[in-house]
Amino acid sequence: MAAIGTRVLSVLLFLSLSNLASSLYEDQVGLMDWHQKYIGKVKHAVFHTQKAGRKRVVVSTEQNVIASLDLRHGDIYWRHVLGADDAIDGIDIALGKYVITLSSGGSILRAWNLPDGQLVWESILKGSNPSKIMLIVPTSFRVDRENLIFAFAGGCLHAVSSIDGEIIWRKDFAAKSLEVQQVIQAPAEETVRVLGYVESSQFHAYEINPRKGDEIKHVNVDFPGGLSADTVLVSDDVLVALDATRSVLLTILFQDGEINFRKTQILSLVDDSHGVVEILPCKLADMFALKTNKFLVLAKVMDGGVVELVEKIKEAAALSDAVSLSESQQAIALARHENQKLHIIMKPVHDWNIDLLKETIKIDNQRGLVHKVFINNYVRTDRSYGFRALIVMEDHSLLLIQQGEIVWCREDGLASVIDVTTSELPVEKDGVSVSKVEQSLFEWLKGHILKLKGTLMLASAEDVAAIQNMRLKSSEKSKMTRDHNGFRKLLIVLTGSGKVFALHTGDGRIVWSLLVQSLRKSEKCDYPTGLRIYPWQVPHHHAMDENPSVLVVGRCGPSDDAPGLLSFIDAYKGEELDSLVPIHSIVQVIPLPFTDSTEQRLHLLVDANQRAHLYPRSPKALTIFRSEISNIYWYSVEADNGIIRGHVSKGSCSHDEDEYCFDPKDLWSVVLPAETEKIVASETHKINEVVHTQAKAIADQDVMYKYISKNLLFLATTAPKGSGEIGSATPEESWLVVYLIDTITGRILHRMTHQGSQAPVHAVFSENWVVYHYFNLRAHRYEMSVVEIYDQSRADNKDVLKLVVGKHNLTSPVSSYSRPEVTAKSQSYFFTHSVKAITVTSTAKGITSKQLLIGTIGDQVLALDKRYLDPRRTVNPTQAEKEEGMIPLTDSLPIIPQSYVTHALKVEGLRGIVTVPAKLESTTLVFTYGVDLFFTRLAPSRTYDSLTEDFSYALLLITIAALIVAIFVTWIWSERKDLQEKWR
Amino acid sequence: MEGEKLWRILTAVAVLLLAAASHHHRAGAFQSDELLIEQEDDLGAAIGGAGVGVGVGVGVDPVTPPRSRKRYSDAAESDSKFQFPLEHAFGDSDFSPAGTFSARLKTWSHGPQTLTKLRFSRNALTEVDKEKFQKLLQDDDFYRIRLPSNVLSPPGRDYIVSSIKARCLPRDGLDEHFVIHMDGVNILAVNYGPPGACPYPRQLKLPAKWSFNSHTILKNSEQAPRTPVFAEEISLGENGEAEVVKPPEKSFWAKYWMYVIPLGLIVMNAVTQAMNMPPEEQAGGQPQGAAPAQRGPAAVRRR
């Protein structure tokens, strides 16, 4: 045991000496990092304003977030991000103090405490088969009642006590083969009604005793025409449904145990209806809304089920649910666009001609159309009714509108970042006015004197606060010009809504945003989605007068062979320069290492048939490409088939006249046996990675040569059984095979099997090493492995004499066709966390040592020094190896709390980490995205090439001045003393 | 011929002795004999050229476990000979047969099948092929080969294709090198190319001899090194302690020479100064008897 103690001690000692963790002090938080919290696109909103000191709205979003927002400012009171597979189906407020959520396909019912968001109770609902999901929370609670919540999911109706989540009773409707459409609890009545179809031709209505769950009444009627699943409840006893052909409206009345129905032809409502008719799922009280491909139709159900047309709306519009103003009065909000203005109209249900409120708001063009409206009423100071509207826009932003003004707005589109690229800021131009300099000079002096006070411990508490404030809000970091160190950049972010944002790295503010027109739904493109964003044009020669631009790649539809789309955006102005919609399908985008005369980067877009298309489509680009065509190779991974193929261009496409299209020729293929291997991960180098040196000096003055080829592919496969959830396979029937494949020739350079291990695999590839993370079933733990690959063909270049004489092959070009002489070294370590994303720091010249950035399951980013993942680590390193900085071998990788890059913050729903080199070699910029955004600056080997920002120049100057004064004073003194000596 | 025969017998005896020594349970004489014949076969293939005037080199990757162990470990194994084709194409032409691989398939009672004794015989190039190859060399185009992905039921799911720029192959003859990556009876990939480097830019060079010199290696997957588990800490710890004691092996001089030499110099300096002082003060009155003592300081002074 003593031995273990000494080993641990020695490792700790080593750590403390080398200080691998680059932690920061409390007062440095926020200096170079920023964190933004988002919630995502709102699906549901419930207001809580009555009798509440703090007015709030509780929302659930498409990013599986539930949040309570401040209605005054839009801030988040509390928020919970549920798991990726825990989608929220319904929310409501019960008992005035609990937020009830139904999630995971109706299987989990939870109650959260409204003021602080604590989980109060959780119940698992077991259903038998998939069905509609409904959550019914009675609006009025009485003390004497049991206060039941009804949740319908999985074909079963559950009655759950809202106080402790106990399931009181459960009634299975799936066993009766009933497709339940609606469940109602009328406030006035003591029963719960369940309405549904059997084999879509019989309508059934059940009345159930809410206390015990027993059936009170059951009636049914046949519909020979058949019914569709589109239904809406108009009132407590009227249901509107579409028949199977979607051309006839059925109004079904079920009163006093009888069912009556009435048919209305849709053509009689809308004379020229075309396309598929849908009923909108809005609760409009005696009304309902139909959507055709041209109109939004509002209709009212009169007594006896007669349907009457109320209004046809041509423009894009959105409807809210009805809110009740008084016992008899209910109102609906209608938001419609007209000439780039948004009109919000409140109308009472009983009289459509009156406008309770009409407000016109000028809205930013970049927000697109209104997607959802939620309405809340309040009593004004003059006792009339006022309304506030919560609006969800096309770009997923959330706006609160009250009294004709936008009270606040949240850019929640940023919760669904898809891809990130960066752009340099404009170069600073001459002509700064003198007064500005003087002012800044004064500020500068003041600031430094304050800092000096701080250093000399003379500062009062106020001064300290002022210093901290000054540091945080330094205008230096949020300037709109390029800086010497390359810390200031634009992060250009593509989001799921099709909006592109440019964020400033200094403070995270939005510089511009653009709702890309070609990424909006149009006739040419039905379901456009953004895929990737690439730097398109980076001007170096004309940096003063030309703007850089970015390329957005997307596709119309979910499948690989859907037509693609391209959009080119100016990175400074945020304007769409050009777009191509629709084009050939896009499965792969290859930025080539060539630029044309206007510094546009050549890109090769590979379509679903493996044909390559060259962009930009200019003759100059074509000439450049043609001259390099024999050295351009690409590969495709068919993950489902387990086949990897390499291609080269054969020449222009044979089938059409397009000279920018090139046919592929298969050069090589790797076929993995389908019964034993399934591809789970593949990883390549970053395109823009810089490697400083090929040689690696190791202990005893020896040197090893890294095998640095940009054309390496890391591939991980598992047994088909092992590709499922962890624990679904036994260690004997699961294995993980890793490959390093040269993508030019298809050679397998290294192949290795990890027995008893399984997916998920996350990998990162850099220089000559790859690090991957997987689960070890035998050890019941996660593991990380490293493979380093070294070039043996250059190993005999160590002889100095040979180097002098020139008999070395260091300058000869490397060809992939030579037989590779490589050795691979590998080692594995245990790692405590499961991993969401993994990447590596990158610096401008690649000199600085590297850190792995690991997005942990706790939504934080951990920086782990690459030296921990060195395959040459041994239990007892020799003296020479210790000097080299080798860490003694341990079986697991340490997690040092100070090395969390995100310090105390969480990047909820973490999905990706991007690293960008700064101009300063020691520093790298890290951007982490998920539901939240986080940005910081890292220096893996400390900032060895610059002084820290809070370095006190004033102190230095004063010290020098004081020294000079002291020299003079002592000189005079000594002169005097000399004189006195001589006079003596 | 006589010498070769003798050599064969000698090797056979040596192998027999080795096999006998490595196994505790004594095998029957007949079985050992069988092993002999096969070993002999292998040697023959490796030394002499077989087939139609084509040099064939066969190697088995050292990763595959030693043969003799397999031989005795499992009684239920079966062993069958079979062949699979190699096809080639010149540039964009269609594939045509180029040679055959023959190997033995071993089936073990517990499931897995492994290939051993892979041999390759290439067909001689026809005149048409030569012309095509020359054209490839002129155009710096690709010479492509393919193998079935399953050796038992060719072509399996798909062919394994590999290509090389034709200009990489010619040396004296046409030198080629195969590394076939196997998993049981499946071929995953083949690394195909010249046995050495292929310098860029590729020079046009016609081979002196229009025949292939083939080298073949079979490769199976390596096992990843196990994660180190420090369970036997105590024994390791003892080792550790032993190594802690190790450093004092260095001699005193080796460790502290850098301190000792300056110290010595200082002392000597001081001594000389101390020695010099008296003679200067008591100028001539120095007795001659101290000659040996003065020799040293005199030498120092000269420095």
TrEMBL record, chain A:
It is a single-pass type I membrane protein. It is found in: Endoplasmic reticulum membrane. Its main location: endoplasmic reticulum. The keyword Membrane applies. Belongs to the EMC1 family. Component of the ER membrane protein complex (EMC). This is ER membrane protein complex subunit 1.
UniProtKB/TrEMBL annotation, chain B:
It is found in: Endoplasmic reticulum membrane. GO terms for cellular component: endoplasmic reticulum membrane. It comes from the Eukaryota. Keywords: Endoplasmic reticulum, Membrane, Signal, Transmembrane, Transmembrane helix. Residues 278-303 are annotated as: Disordered. It holds the Pfam family ECM10. Residues 1-29 form the signal peptide. It is a single-pass type I membrane protein. Its main location: endoplasmic reticulum. Residues 279-303 have a biased composition (Low complexity). Belongs to the EMC10 family. This is ER membrane protein complex subunit 10.
